[in-house]
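User: Fold both of these, please.

Assistant: Here is the first one.
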Amino acid sequence: MKIANNKVVVMHYAVMDSEETLIDSSYDHQPLTFIQGTGFLIPGLESELVDKAVGDKFIVDVDADNAYGQRHDGFVQTVPKSFFQGIDDLDVGMQLRAQTDEGEQTVIVIGMEDDEITVDGNHPLAGIDLKFDVEILEVRDATEEEIAHGHVHTEGGCGHEH
């Protein structure tokens, strides 16, 4: 069976930057399981999976525009420390959920000075070309329920109320 929209795909992957520095890998733990065509993966990787089958092993180069996008300087902001009341252990590197004009998004604390905190709303991999080493382990039809819910169900369902 070949990968197409509404197929459940189980795969191992390793992702590296353009200098082949390992960023993440599933080879040491559980493989990634998702429904093809739901936007779960970055566009550049998802499009390369079409028509692949169990046992296929391949390398995919994905430029930043088809991965996590380009970095935007406007996504880095310095705000008053008072915006973070109630967070006692605020520290550089901490990821937080922030309310923005575009809705809720993750920001990373990148600087702290006296009464000001600098946060970066860019994805940590924004602006980086990526290389994926992929192995397809399983391909099957998604169930109607999985398609309706937009994610793969494990044994015992997914925990949604029926």
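And the second sequence with its predicted structure:
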Amino acid sequence: MDTENGPQWLTDDEQRAWRTHLDVSRLLMYQLERDLQPFGLTMHDYEILVNLSESGDRRMRMSDLAQATLQSKSRLSHQITRMESAGLVRREHCDTDKRGLFACLTDHGWNTMREVAPHHVESVRRHFIDLLAPESLSALQTTLAPVAEHLRSRRGRV
């Protein structure tokens, strides 16, 4: 943030922490994505499958799914079209809102989720969880929770 005297630059310690966070975020997502490739899925695909599989009736309004996955409605629509072609999801019209659409998990999508989830969890463990001591995981969660909450509260703001 700019002050009267210019930006408040990061200290060396702050810079190292920030760069480490960026490295871990990029490298971890890259590795998790690679581990999904044998199943023909991307991280975006998997995130959509998770959201749909965890919803009560295995379906979500497209607008809610876009918000949950932090995607624009247009980007999500293209993603869902691709996933429809693979038979993982289908769109359904909303009876109460003629303009509304649901993304619905197909049986094939559900079976894919059940097949892939154990491999994904193993990948998360191997590349993240098992590399940290339990007390470090707890401290990491405690440390990052305020950042996540702050960013969640800013969603939708311009």
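The longest strand covers residues 89-93.
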